[in-house]
Amino acid sequence: MIPLMVEAICDGRPPTPDIVAEVTEYVDRSTGILTIRQMEWLAEAVRRHGLARAPRTAREYKRTYNERLLGPVRERLRQMDGSPAGCDAFLIAGAHAFLQGLHDQEVTLYLASGTDQAYVVEEAAALGVAGFFGERIYGARDDTEAYTKERLIGRTLDEHGLRGEELLVVGDGPVEIRHAKARGAVALGVAAGEERRQGLDPRKHRRLLEADADLIVTDFLHHAELLLCLVDPTAQAGL
Q1: Which domains occur in the chain, in start order?
Q2: 221-232 confidence digits (pLDDT tens)
C-alpha cells in the first residue's frame, strides 16, 4: 500500500522524504480499517499535494490497489495443492493449530478484515480455515459501515452478553487492538514477519505497543501454552 500511495501522490516525480514519512505514518496508524477509507485518505492527500496531473477517486485507487494486491495472492492460491501442509505454508506459523485449539475449547470464532468480503471468504476457504468460522466471516462492503471491526467487536459483546474480558481480539493492526482495549477486551497482537511467517517484525511490534496490546506474539508455535494463558473455560465467544 505504501508504494501505491507514494506513486499516486508523486505521479512520476521523485518522492520526497516528507511524503514517504507521511504515507508510512498513515499506513502504520490505519492498518485494519476498511480499505476504502484508506483510499479516501489517499485521494485527499493527492489533492492536497497537488502533484498529480489526473487525480483519481477513492474507488479508482482502491481498484488499482486490489489489482496489484490480488494478482500475487491469486497466483499463490493457484499453486496450493489443498493439503494441510500446503495451507500452513501461507499461514503464520502455528496459526492453524491455535485456531483448532480455540475451536476445541468451544470458543466461537469470528474473522474480520478490511479487505472486500468476497476475497476474504475465498482466501479463508483456500487456506483451510473457513470451517472454524462458519458464516462468521466479515469483509468490507463499501456501501455500509456495519461490518467494521469496531462494530463487530461491539456486536459480539452485546449479542453474547459478554463482559469485555471474555472477548479475545487477535490481530496485527493497531485499529482492532485499539477498539478491543476501548471495550475492555483482551488484545493479542501478532508482530510476525510476513516472509518467514514468524520472527519479529519491528514495525508491527512498535505499532502494537503504541496501541496498548495486552500481549504480543511473533507466531503461534507455542499455541498450547498460549491457550492455557488465554482461554477461560467459562467463556463462550472469541474474536
Answers
A1: 2-78 (no CATH), 83-230 (3.40.50.1000)
A2: 999 999 988 875
